[in-house]
């Protein structure tokens, strides 16, 4: 990897040739990735400034502000308990202050907060900053589906890559071996962007792959959850390993075909060969809340909104949500029947079709 | 699919336009596939003769010949207990008699019996017969690796396709949803061959895909077991879902690269998109004896030959066997280091390298 470095303003206002990193978000995944970025900023002190800012949405933790607790204990006891963050990761309750002078921005917020955060940051980020989106899901607006890297790029006017992969946060935080994938934009700037983030994140136990396909990497992270619902149905039905593997294979190819049909610059191997594609699909269909709730849906006969209350504390399930969004998108274009697995998931989850009909519809 | 049909000699010696099917083998998978072939021979009575011969290696079953028990009870109580075979599947203890006048031969024997069976059949099969190999593994001879479809084709002088997929036999026998893949030869004859076998096997719960890649389909079935050993190591080490998915992804790409480097006519999508490729890899790395023994190897510290005795009744494990064969093949060509996952599996299984070193070698 190249050690591309750009001039940036240091926090003291003087010019520096080192990159200043800000992590925008501090949930389970945000804290895990801040830990890696913190370690690598120290390891590659030729490229990165030592201090890594981490924006923390301020909330109370046992009577004290969470950001203060993190800075005193070097741990995020609310979202990543038991995992020590390096001292150079500094929690900051002001997002505007956290990104001040930053040349590298890592967006790792829950998707419902991304628009409001971008509005707050507009005009306040370094126009030459590099950004990366680790946000799960896609934005659906006016019947269109947008990836968050595009949303961020448009809102802030800066280049944005995407990172996704078979990355259960708690495993990454324990340095258990993982791979991940950065999808970047075309051209020199896109590649430089990816190489910088490669250097910020790659470690011997968190191996970063790079592919020129920001949309593919982003869509994998959203669409896999729909396939995980189908895989969970097969678990609930007790159909065995052959059926589950078949559903995963068919789902992977629908994910790829959907992305190729409706997005530009998709590389098929993003789906079939990268950690963001086939590997993340495997982890998501084996473990994960989407699979689990879909299994319970079949076994208990309870509707998904009730299971969300019982199993997820009322949080919305991404897979059924994305299945609905994809269905509406396809319906508006008269293409529902071209994606039989997506259609079957929607019909079973929302239209009362018997889950036993899953494979007869493929 | 076309309903291609060829002239053949019927068992009475008169010419018939229908295909006569013989299944060479009657183990767990052989019996499951004979059941499907029997049903489809009846369903497509325009294409197939009603009777399906099934060669049974004669052995004693509770004081009676197994073939006789199968023909009286329409069940193979030894290898597929509890599953009714259709009445038109006829067990035959003579392989020469079973294939007499057959125009379609299904080879589904344990690989150690294939050479002796081919020798016995030489000159005794219809020279226009179509064959398909469902034999797991590869033949290693004089430092070379051959697929069994080639071995059969050369020994008997007839066209041979290959069938492989995410096909746990007991699940297929219960009509649980499965997919499978036929890999066929180039040209019209290869395609006709595949279409005939498609018609013989495809059902609403056993969906057959076709690809022009007999070597790729065969190699998937052999090499996946090496990857399953690596996946089992990660289970034994308790490394979690990220690491296991990463090892599966890396393994899938090594399988593809190995096949592309050393075999002709390989299609990459056989590995990344078919049931024989990615789907079978998933089932094999999730369940299966290779995964299980590799997990036990790490957890107990016992050598594989001891685990084979304890867990497999002394049967040889395919994954470690194939890892050794692939290693010798690569060593003879100075290419061991080009396949780090295959190398790591070999080193851990045979050279006493600590399984913890698995991913540091990738």
UniProtKB/TrEMBL annotation, chains A, B:
Coiled-coil segments on the chain, per record: none
Enzyme Commission number(s) of this protein: 1.1.1.8
The keyword NAD appears for this protein: yes
InterPro entries according to UniProt: 6-PGluconate_DH-like_C_sf (IPR008927), 6PGD_dom2 (IPR013328), G3P_DH_NAD-dep (IPR006168), G3P_DH_NAD-dep_C (IPR006109), G3P_DH_NAD-dep_euk (IPR017751), G3P_DH_NAD-dep_N (IPR011128), NAD(P)-bd_dom_sf (IPR036291)
Gene3D superfamilies: N-(1-d-carboxylethyl)-l-norvaline Dehydrogenase, domain 2, NAD(P)-binding Rossmann-like Domain
UniProt domain Glycerol-3-phosphate dehydrogenase NAD-dependent N-terminal: residue ranges: 20-184
One example of a Gene Ontology biological process annotation: carbohydrate metabolic process
Catalysed transformations (reactions): sn-glycerol 3-phosphate + NAD(+) = dihydroxyacetone phosphate + NADH + H(+)
Catalytic class of the enzyme: oxidoreductase
Pfam families, A to Z: NAD_Gly3P_dh_C, NAD_Gly3P_dh_N
Positions with a binding annotation for NAD(+): 25-30, 113, 169, 289, 316, 318
Catalytic residues (positions): 224
Sequence positions that bind substrate: 136, 289-290
Domain Glycerol-3-phosphate dehydrogenase NAD-dependent C-terminal: 213-358
MF (Gene Ontology): glycerol-3-phosphate dehydrogenase (NAD+) activity; NAD binding; protein homodimerization activity
Keywords recorded for this protein, A-Z: NAD, Oxidoreductase
Domain of life: Eukaryota
PROSITE patterns assigned: NAD_G3PDH
NCBIfam families found in the cross-reference section: glycerol3P_DH
Family to which this protein belongs: Belongs to the NAD-dependent glycerol-3-phosphate dehydrogenase family.
Protein name, UniProt field: Glycerol-3-phosphate dehydrogenase [NAD(+)]
Natural source organism: Testicularia cyperi
Organismal lineage: Eukaryota, Fungi, Dikarya, Basidiomycota, Ustilaginomycotina
């Amino acid at each position: 990897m190249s050690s591309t470095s750009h001039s940036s303003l240091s926090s003291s206002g003087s010019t520096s040739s080192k990159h200043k990193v800000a992590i925008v978000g501090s949930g389970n995944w945000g804290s895990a990735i801040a830990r890696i970025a913190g370690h690598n900023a120290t390891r590659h002190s030729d490229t990165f400034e030592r201090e890594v800012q981490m924006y923390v949405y301020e909330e109370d933790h046992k009577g004290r502000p969470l950001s203060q607790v993190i800075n005193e204990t070097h741990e995020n006891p609310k979202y990543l308990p038991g995992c020590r963050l390096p001292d150079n990761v500094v929690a900051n309750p002001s997002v505007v202050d956290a990104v001040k002078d930053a040349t590298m921005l890592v967006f790792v917020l829950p998707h419902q907060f991304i628009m409001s955060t971008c509005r707050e940051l507009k005009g306040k980020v370094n126009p030459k900053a590099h950004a990366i989106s680790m946000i799960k899901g896609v934005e659906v607006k006016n019947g269109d589906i947008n990836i968050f890297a595009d949303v961020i790029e448009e809102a802030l006017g800066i280049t944005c890559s995407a990172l996704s992969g078979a990355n259960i946060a708690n495993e990454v935080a324990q340095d258990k071996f993982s791979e991940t994938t950065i999808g970047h934009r075309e051209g020199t700037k896109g590649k430089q962007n990816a190489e910088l983030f490669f250097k910020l994140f790659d470690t011997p136990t968190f191996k970063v792959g790079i592919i020129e396909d920001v949309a593919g990497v982003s869509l994998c992270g959203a669409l896999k959850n729909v396939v995980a619902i189908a895989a969970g149905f097969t678990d609930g039905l007790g159909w065995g390993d052959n059926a589950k593997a078949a559903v995963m294979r068919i789902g992977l190819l629908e994910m790829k075909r959907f992305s190729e049909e409706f997005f530009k610059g998709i590389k098929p191997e993003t789906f079939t060969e990268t950690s963001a594609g086939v590997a993340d699909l495997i982890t998501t269909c084996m473990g994960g809340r989407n699979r689990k709730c879909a299994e319970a849906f079949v076994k208990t006969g309870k509707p998904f909104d009730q299971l969300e209350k019982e199993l997820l504390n009322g949080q919305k399930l991404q897979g059924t949500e994305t299945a609905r969004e994809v269905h509406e998108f396809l319906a508006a274009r008269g293409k529902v029947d071209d994606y039989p697995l997506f259609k079957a998931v929607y019909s079973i989850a929302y239209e009362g079709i018997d889950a036993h009909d899953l494979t007869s519809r493929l």
